[in-house]
Design goal:
Layout: H1 10-13, H2 16-25, H3 31-49, H4 52-72, H5 79-90, E1 97-98, E2 101-102, E3 104-105, E4 108-109, H6 117-125, H7 135-158, H8 166-177, H9 184-206, H10 232-245, H11 252-269
Antiparallel strand pairs: 1-2, 3-4
Helix pairs in contact: 2-3, 2-4, 3-4, 4-6, 4-7, 5-7, 7-8, 7-9, 8-9, 8-10, 9-10, 9-11, 10-11
């Protein structure tokens, strides 16, 4: 299914999942009604076919609808938190069952485990905006980072880090604060993580949350380090670099987010 940018293809924007989210964030329906409407395609598919493969197709459409809405919703809009709350609420739905069989996709339970949601977020991260991207793409990239930060913070406080999207925040922070010649959009995306998830990032850093392999290796400016994830040293590097960048960014959105990030960090370090 082609993604057609972060806003998604016509197939995504014409789906009942997308419509349910639109009605919810515009306050046309309450959370429970939106969850029912959003979940119906996957649940009806399981009831009619008990095919995990068919359910997975509906889940992919569901996750891309969430990503599309998040990318098109300004990071300043309270609807971003509503979207994060929606995903947390989705996890509370009962497991899909038919004839004693529980629906599992890729070995994980629908809805509790949000099967393949992380994969869809990873696909979206492959469309990161860069310095040469158009303004729409930059705005959508910042918005998506804000949403993912909000969801990461919500999951950390409410659902024991499920879904665990912390690696995506880590990548945004590393790109902005551990590399050379960083773009304003990368700085803005990283700052959004501090604005909306600073206490969570701080907690991960204090607890040295690490990742397997080289996915959390140091950026090029710190290649002599042996870091494998969040750490207190990295927190110090990131916050110091953020402070240094304040006043250097030329983009108004980036400047605003950097300033807000400084406030969020200051509240933790008081």
């Amino acid at each position: 299914m082609p993604q057609a940018g972060l806003e998604g293809s016509n197939t995504i924007q014409q789906s009942p999942q997308y419509a349910a989210l639109s009605d919810y964030i515009s306050n046309k329906i309450e959370l429970n009604g939106a969850l029912d409407k959003f979940s119906s395609p996957a649940e009806n598919e399981w009831t009619s076919s008990t095919s995990a493969e068919e359910v997975e197709e509906q889940l992919t459409l569901s996750w891309r609808s969430i990503i599309s809405q998040a990318a098109q919703t300004s990071f300043k809009d309270a609807a971003q938190q509503k979207l994060a709350d929606f995903v947390v609420g989705l996890q509370q739905r009962p497991a899909l069952q038919k004839d004693g069989q529980t629906c599992q996709v890729q070995g994980t339970i629908v809805w509790k485990d949000l099967p393949t949601f992380g994969w869809s977020i990873r696909d979206a991260w492959n469309q990161a905006a860069g310095p040469d991207s158009d303004q729409k793409s930059k705005d959508q990239w910042i918005n998506l980072n804000a949403f993912t930060a909000l969801l990461t913070a919500s999951a950390h406080s409410k659902t024991n880090d499920n879904p665990d999207l912390s690696l995506f925040g880590f990548w945004a922070l590393r790109q902005a604060f551990e590399e050379q010649n960083v773009s304003d959009v990368a700085i803005a995306a990283a700052a959004a993580w501090f604005v909306y998830a600073a206490p969570t990032i701080y907690d991960f850093s204090q607890k040295s949350k690490s990742f397997d392999g080289k996915v959390a290796k140091p950026g090029s400016a710190f290649s002599d380090q042996s870091w494998t994830g969040f750490s207190q040293d990295r927190w110090q590097v990131w916050t110091k670099k953020l402070s240094e960048l304040q006043g250097r960014v030329s983009n108004n959105t980036a400047s605003q987010l950097v300033e807000q990030a400084q406030v969020a960090i200051g509240e933790i370090q008081q």
